[in-house]
Structures are given as structure tokens and as C-alpha cells.
Amino acid sequence: MTATSSGTFAPRPGSAPLGRMVRAQASMETRLLVRNGEQLLLAIVIPVIVLVGAVVGADRLGLDVGRRPVDVLTPGVLALAVMSTSFTSLAISTGFERRYGVLKRLGSSPLPRSGLLLGKVGALLLVQVGQLFVLSCVGLALGWQPSPGGAGLLGFVLAVLTGTFAFASLGLFLAGVLRAEATLAAANLVYLLLLAGGAVVLPASSYGDFGAIAQWLPSGALGEATRASLTDGRLPGVELVVLLAWGALGTVLTARTFQWE
Rounded to the nearest 10 degrees, how much is the dihedral formed by the CA atoms of 240, 46, 119, 126? Predict the structure, then answer.
């Protein structure tokens, strides 16, 4: 509304600036993620259990990963946290938003579809900051000693951003073509398969001959990128290119097949 010369107010119809709408959408998406118990399970609880269990189990079983287990496993679990939020949580929440008509109603609001997607990505990044902080604290408590240096820190940030891009695009593709129940089952199945055999927590070299294939998967590329950044202190160029390629593929597939209702 605008003030007139007489001191009263007159309505001024129109939408808010795009930036303000995206921030409001990201804030709402973040609150929904934080309040959802299943999303918190995927975002925090499961990665913490995997980290503690893998470190304790590796020490007791004498698992040889070339370095101290905690220094190899902690970056891998950080990658797992990015995957769980960007892919599984996003796919499931978007699938049920389609089912209940939320996306259809948002699509008819002044918020453009690009703004809706930017809001979702912004919420993912906000949640991931909390995830990475909690998991880093747990890793440090277990004896993790990262040595990234400047190049490694830059590489880790780029790995998180490109990993989010790759998995978010693939998650939206999955949610846009399947029914909500099918998305729930498929997203959890893919998550478990990549956790077990996708070279995200363990290095690709731990998988024998299959490691040569696993490192080209988005999970393997993200896991190798975080390990290269935080353990070796180098910029993971090849891994980032692989993640960008998966993100581009997911974006094209989503743009061509996504159904808003």
C-alpha cells in the first residue's frame, strides 16, 4: 500500500520482488524440513549412526582404507548427508506435494516456478549447513583430523554445491514422473543401494573392480570429491566435472518430464 497526500493508504497491487519471494519460500521449506521427523532421520540421525558405527567397526575389524578410518569415513559421511537431503528428502517431499496439490497451487501464485525451485535449493543448503556442522563435530569427537588447506576448503565447498545440484536435479526428476508412494519407495531404495555400493562412504578403491564404475556415479564422485578435499587437501577437478554432468543430465530430464500435478 502507498500513502496519499491526505495521510490515508491506497492499495498498490503487485507481487513482491523475486528475491523476497525466494527468501520467503526458502524459509518456509526449511521449517517444513526441520519439523518433519522422517526428514530429520535422513538428514541427521542416519548419517551420525553410519559415522559412529563405521568408525568403531573399522577400528575393531582392522579395516584397511589406507589412512586412519576416521579420516577417510568422516568426509564420506559428509557426502552421504548431502545426498540424503538433496536427493532422498527432496524427492519424497516433492512427490507428496504433487499428490496433495501443493505444487499446483504454488504454480498459480505470483511465485514463478524458477523461484519455487530456487527456494527449495536454498532450503537444502540451509539444512546442509546444520548437517555438516553436527557431523563435523561428531567426527572431531571421534578423532578426525582434517587437513584441507585453502585448495581443499574451496574444493569441499564446490563439492557440496555441485553435489547438491546433481542430486537435487535427479531427485526432482524422480518426484516428477512417479506417484508419491512410488517415489517414496524408489528414493529410499536408491539411497540404500548408493550407501552400500555407491562409493560414497568408503573409497572407490574399497570396491575392487567395481570401484572403477562406482567413481563415475554421482555418489562416488561426491564421496571422492569430499575425501580429496578434506583428506588430501586438493581441488577435485575430475569429480566436480562428473557431478556437473550428472546435474546437467538431471536438469534436462526434469525439464522434459516433470509434472506439477
Answer: -80
